[in-house]
Amino acid sequence: MPLTILSPQVQEFILQNTNTDVSKLALQKNPFHDVEWTDILNQIAARQKAKDKLPTWFESSNIIYPSKVSVEQTSSEITAQYKASLVSGESLIDLTGGFGVDDYYFAKTVSKIAHCEMNEQLSQIVAHNISNMGVNNIQCYTGDSLDTLTELKQQWDWIYIDPSRRSDVKGKVFMLKDCLPNVPELLDTYFNYSSNILIKTAPLLDIAAGLSELHSVKEIYITALNNEVKELLWHIEKGFTGIPAIHAVNLSKDGEPEIFTTTVEDEPDVSYSLPQQYLYEPNSAIMKSGAFNDVAKQFNLYKLHRHTQLYTNHTLIDFPGRKFVINEIVPYGKTEMKKYATGQKMNITVRNFPISVEELRKKWKIKDGGDTYAFFTTDKDNNKLMLICSKA
């Protein structure tokens, strides 16, 4: 991308059109003869994506953005900031640098950062941006990261890797061996250069599958943002042979993160109960962990059913997820549904129930929204229920 994109006139045009529909803007004539129109449109589209996800970049002047897709795929600032809290020391090498959001935050906790990126243009963009943002402890390297790692011939406190799925791999099964770089294959090579490796993977990766491909896994962080799982972080420590800890972390723009810690050991025994006064629904990070029995044990709760990941008790507690007061316990049947649900306005959740939310709405003419929350579920005696609740 030519540096003419940084000319004051072009930058002013980009700023003025931040809220403009790019598809409509594309129909206009390019007002600049020395800059490609597609490059300008891409900057506007990418900047629009950065507004909420990357506010530091959005609020900085003279930033160059890669493609809109690259901005969509990069870490958000909130998740990057949390990631940086997991590392420390003098040096970190990022083998899959990308747009450099993670490295910007790593640079706040680690003295020296190496940003490795195969794409020469992207590497140049990151070098420009970090300099423009006043960051002076990140060095950008272009080319194959394994070559860079071997050529630098030094020990690092941390290696960070965000492997990307190879485009030639078809099907829905997500395995690390199908990504670039191939971490399972290169893991022992990486250990020649660092004792601590942090791997970021998509939430699609099954935890058991990841553990089957990797060794020396010390900790797994399931990172959610506003109750949507965004990434899995795998801390691998050279020589570690213990039981990995799993941290389910739910981040938000405001307030402290919700953190629930468990292990990959066998789940403990739990007690079951019919619905009591309060109902608890774990956040998405805990749901991804699969530690459903351990939730009941740690918070002294009862499960509604072996396959119903909802919990109950008689005393309101602090809980990493949603909390409700159960106002009505309604057996699921035609008469009861006509009385309590038909034509009502409710937020519906289905847990271990044979009918989908869409089917329930259509069948019983239930409107969406309001302050009432209806959970359709199965109790410990295998009875189908509707729990009518309000937020606790």
From TrEMBL:
<dbReference type="GO" id="GO:0032259">
    <property type="term" value="P:methylation"/>
</dbReference>
<dbReference type="InterPro" id="IPR041497">
    <property type="entry name" value="Thump-like"/>
</dbReference>
<protein>
    <submittedName>
        <fullName>SAM-dependent methyltransferase</fullName>
    </submittedName>
</protein>
<dbReference type="InterPro" id="IPR054168">
    <property type="entry name" value="PG_1098_Fer"/>
</dbReference>
<dbReference type="InterPro" id="IPR029063">
    <property type="entry name" value="SAM-dependent_MTases_sf"/>
</dbReference>
<keyword id="KW-0808">Transferase</keyword>
<dbReference type="GO" id="GO:0008168">
    <property type="term" value="F:methyltransferase activity"/>
</dbReference>
<feature type="domain" description="THUMP-like">
    <location>
        <begin position="321"/>
        <end position="391"/>
    </location>
</feature>
<keyword id="KW-0489">Methyltransferase</keyword>
<dbReference type="Pfam" id="PF18096">
    <property type="entry name" value="Thump_like"/>
</dbReference>
<feature type="domain" description="PG-1098 ferredoxin-like">
    <location>
        <begin position="278"/>
        <end position="320"/>
    </location>
</feature>
<dbReference type="Pfam" id="PF22013">
    <property type="entry name" value="PG_1098_Fer"/>
</dbReference>
